[in-house]
Amino acid sequence: MSDPLDRSLALLDQPAHRALLTRSLHGIEKESLRVDPAGNLALSSHPAALGATLTHPRITTDYAESLMEFITGTHAGHEALLQELRDIHRVVYAELGGELLWNQSMPCRLPAEEDIPIAWFGPSNTGMLKHVYRRGLAYRYGKAMQCIAGIHYNFSFADELWGLLAGPDEPAGLSAQDRQSARYVALIRNFTRYSWLLMYLFGASPAVSPDFLRGKPHGLQTLGADTLYLPYATSLRMSDLGYQNKAQAGLKPCYNTLETYVQRLYAAVSQPWPEYEKLGTVRDGQWIQLSTNVLQIENEYYSSIRPKRVARRGERPLVALASRGVQYVEVRCLDIDPFLPVGIDESGSRFMEAFLLFCALQDSPMFAEGGHCSRSANNFLTVVREGRRPGLALDRDGAPVPLRDWGGELLDRIAACADLLDRAHGGVAHAAAVAAQRERLAEPEATPSARFLRELRASGASFLEFSLGLSRVHADAFRREPPAPALREAFRRQAEESLQAQRRMEETETGDFGAFVAAYHARLEGLFRK
């Protein structure tokens, strides 16, 4: 174990300091496609009984109209976090009629590209901004890509933690805000170094339906007539089959400082890209994308983790970050585990807490441009495509090291963080969560990706048939346990409040949409320009 990690663990283990670890906050955003009983993408609109997707705080849509997104509040406890996510699923199933939630990261059976509906948020300028952004994604990446689903894990430490951990090498006069941002960015650097481990342990999308690829070259193998896969893959969702294009290929911001990260994203949302310039922003009187730049908006940058700050109404995410610093991190690389009713369980959530604590406390040197950052990206891609290959070695500081050996060293360090969390919270749940992952490291067949392929083969079904069967099992379980009347009534009130809020926006946001878009873009001007 490294000296910095040892020292930080010892400091936090003091009785006066352990309570800080109980004030960390967790939140989950979980995506799921709506499908019809046969497993086809639902072409219906978002259920009106669930409220307005533009303004509902818990139930919305992501890119496609059929891609539902469930957003929990923030919780200090994992039990409450997962209970809220289960409650949202129960409420949604009470209003879905015959439709199901596709509990798998790679998409269901999709219709023709032109028939995949883009998420609609109403005719207000704010709603149209969100819709046109998604039109732009369709032109840039294709609509099928807008049907990929995942789990985003939001996490923050108590603000006071960073002052406690301040070291002697810290620059003099550093403000609390800048210290906190610097430490979160250091966490992100370590996450970038070690997140290949998450893909090995939790990747659950080693196969896909051929119709998702729409005839594009892919290099996958066939498993029966209607399934494509890679034999040692862990997460095709996070591979180069996902959101990739030439414009973003050179946009790999290493997380050395918040300022450099923000500046690079600002450059990307400000720099025109020739292919997008050919498309333009308006065609036949209809807006087709928000800009012709490398990124339409900063959220288009697809990364496995993001520094985040809750933005005020109408505020750009980059402005929020630059003005008030990092508030939390959003982990974006977790697949939906198709064997779990809500795609993640409490053990996985606790492991994520221990992993992120390790990333925060472990020494985190700066990345050399084009060096360690590229190595980390290559390790990540290697694991998502062949992480269970026997004898697989990764690149650690320019030298090959067996994945199993490196993973064992990391789990030892993460276990020390889990033990500290258990002393802070009581019990042994975090240690048990790490122990469960040791089994997966020792035996690749215990990983979710291996289990999916093993049971898929045994079933004799296609990817689509097998995934539909799992989704039906979860749907039946939720329908057998409908929401309690008080819970359902609370969500009905929230749905009605969201519809009223959207109607108010539609009544007031009636100005020229082009001027609205120009004003939105202008909110970045002056803040980053030198």
How big a fraction of the residues is strand?
5-15%
Structural class: alpha+beta
List the quaternary state of the chains.
single chain
**Total individual domains:** 1
Number of helices: 20
Major sheet, described briefly?
A: 7 strands, antiparallel
Please mark out the parts with pLDDT under 50 across 5 or more consecutive residues, or reply none.
none
Number of strands: 14
Radius of gyration: 23 Å
Shape: globular
The CATH class name reads Alpha Beta
Q: What's the CATH architecture name? A: 2-Layer Sandwich
Whole-number average pLDDT?
94
Molecular structure report:
The protein has 530 residues and is α+β, with helices and mostly antiparallel strands. It has a single domain, classed as 2-Layer Sandwich (Creatine Kinase, Chain A, domain 2), CATH 3.30.590.20. Helix content is 47%, strand content 11%. It is built from 20 helices and 14 strands. The strands form 4 sheets. Strands 1, 2, 3, 4, 5, 11 and 12 form a 7-stranded antiparallel beta sheet that branches. Strands 6-8-7 form a 3-stranded antiparallel beta sheet, with no helix packed on it. The chain has a two-stranded antiparallel ribbon with strand order 9-10. A hairpin with a 5-residue loop joins strand 2 (59-61) and strand 3. It is globular.
